[in-house]
Amino acid sequence: MSRRAVCGIVARELIRFQRQRGRVLASLVRPFVWLIFAGAGFATVFTGAGEIDYRRYMAPGLLGMVVMFGSLLAALSTVTDRDAGVLRMVLVAPIRRSTIALGKTLGATLLGTTQAVMVGTILLSLVRLWPGPAGLLLAFVAIVLSSLALGALGLLLAATIRSIENFAGVMNFVVFPMLFLSGALYPVRRLGPALHAVVYLNPLAYGVDLLKHALLAGWTSAGYGGEMPVALDVAGLAAFAVAGLLAAARLLGREEGVTRAAFRERD
Amino acid sequence: MTAAAIEARGLGKDFGSIRALDHLDLEVREGEFFGFLGPNGAGKTTTVHLLATLLRPTRGAARVAGYDVVRDDLQTRRSIGLVFQETTLDRDLTVEENLRFAARLWNLPGRVAAPRIAELLGQFGLLERRRDRVRALAGGMRRALDIARGMLHEPRVLFLDEPTAGLDPRARRSLWELLQRLRAASGLTVFLTTHYVEEAEPCDRVAVLDRGRLAALGTPAELKRAAGVQSLEDVFLARTGHPLAEPSAA
Ligand SMILES: Nc1ncnc2c1ncn2[C@@H]1O[C@H](COP(=O)(O)OP(=O)(O)O)[C@@H](O)[C@H]1O
Ligand SMILES: [Mg+2]
């Protein structure tokens, strides 16, 4: 495992991110757009209004959303790397596929975490949520773990899908279901048994749940805090991170990953 | 064992039912400037990717810089430089950032990489453009940067897969002069694929590849003499029964 190579891959992700002003801006503004518009709409049908202000209830979910867009989409940029040829150059370097997977995932983790922390500072004061030092620490752990798990998953997706054209498919069939089945917008216990079972396959659900433990601990007895045990959340996220990394490392070395692009361009 | 820089024994690769490379026996000597001549679809890129450990052989074996390309894939990759047929630069990074990124991937510490990058930038005429995004560079300069990056870790064997394809004649000529200078200075082994006879002409030895098969192998002079013709173009025609310029794939 080459530490220098991992650092190089992470550094490149950071340089690229800060050059894409639009992407930075969108990632920071998106959660507040949701807070204002989705917040206003859902608040009117929210039945727990007597217990907790809906916008406050939304805060952990919105942070989970920032992590998802930040980390998952960063890892998905591997698809662009492949189309641009950069991935081929990385694959011919004297490093293992697992090193590449780790570098990419850590880069995505760093980006997801940074964005969530930036949004979080503003968001928590906006909805006047003061969880205390222990809560903040747990929230940070939740953000890092979720970024890691979603980054690994994004890389796995990137290694699986063939081209950027499938990006829209990923948004529709991965990102949105993941968001709506995460408990970000409403408690998952309200979902029917079939959908509730799907929640356990959703890494974002563990992340959002852990964030609720961290930020909404005071509302747990009212039913608006975390719904799964903290240990299960942490184990779920860790399992997704490890499984995603291992699978992505295997898939990245697949032959088509290198030669397909060259082959396609000529036709 | 000889000090062969590249050694292929019955090397072959199939993609499904396509036999991209049939059965290649080849030896490239240390320090040789070796040309791999063939039309589009002949199997040149497939061969380079096999030798660079990016593809697994369907049959046969190969050693590069003394390393088995399947068993010792990391050492093989450490010993080679590879310039892909299509550019693999990050267009959003600057010239210098691309080289620094590569330096880290090749595990060069900063105190080794910095002077080496400065040296290459000078050698390849990129010094003034070092803070420019690659996006802003013309094709010839991008190619030069691709090659500079391939040379960064001082490889023993440099693979150039159709390095001049897609360049205008002037850029092609200046790149060509650069390659000659580079080789004269370092004594590096160069494995160059091309479909231009002019580029095969100055090579020490040339292998002629057609439809995944080795059609001829020798110095340009030997090849012409053996076929009783005046040009490498005619060597190709004599050995394969069809002209080089036309795509050989049906
Ligand atoms: N990844 C791939 N999948 C399927 N067929 C391929 C692939 N790469 C190359 N080929 C086929 O193998 C043959 C040799 O291709 P290639 O090595 O790229 O030739 P060259 O570089 O000489 O133009 C061609 O028929 C090409 O269509
Ligand atoms: Mg080719």
Folded structure, characterized:
The complex is a heterodimer of chains A (267) and B (250). With 267 residues, chain A is mainly alpha-helical. Chain A is 77% helix and 0% strand. Chain A has one domain (3-255). Chain A has helices spanning 3-19, 21-45, 54-76, 78-84, 86-91, 97-126, 132-160, 167-180, 193-199, 203-215, 230-252, 255-266. Chain A is globular and about 60 Å long. Chain B starts with a strand and ends in a 10-residue tail after the last helix. The longest helix of chain B has 18 residues, at 169-186. Chain B has 250 residues and is α/β, with parallel strands linked by helices. Chain B has a domain at 89-154. Chains A and B meet through α1, α5 and α12 of A and α1, α2 and α3 of B. Magnesium ion is lined by residues 44-45, 85, 161-162 of chain B.
> Which of globular, elongated, flat, extended, rod-shaped describes the shape of chain A?
globular
Strand order of the largest sheet of chain B: 6-7-8-3-9-10
Order of helices and strands of chain A: HHHHHHHHHHHH
- Which structural class matches the secondary elements of chain A? mainly alpha
| Gross geometry of chain B | globular
Nearest-angstrom radius of gyration of chain A? 19 Å
Q: Write down the oligomeric state.
A: heterodimer
For the secondary structure, the number of strands of chain A is 0
**Regions of chain B with pLDDT < 50 over 5+ consecutive residues?**
none
The number of domains of chain A is: 1
The most extensive interface, with participating residues per chain, is: A-B, 30 and 36 residues
- The counted number of beta strands of chain B is 10
For the residues shown, what is the average pLDDT of chain B? Answer: 92
- N- to C-terminal distance of chain A: 37 Å
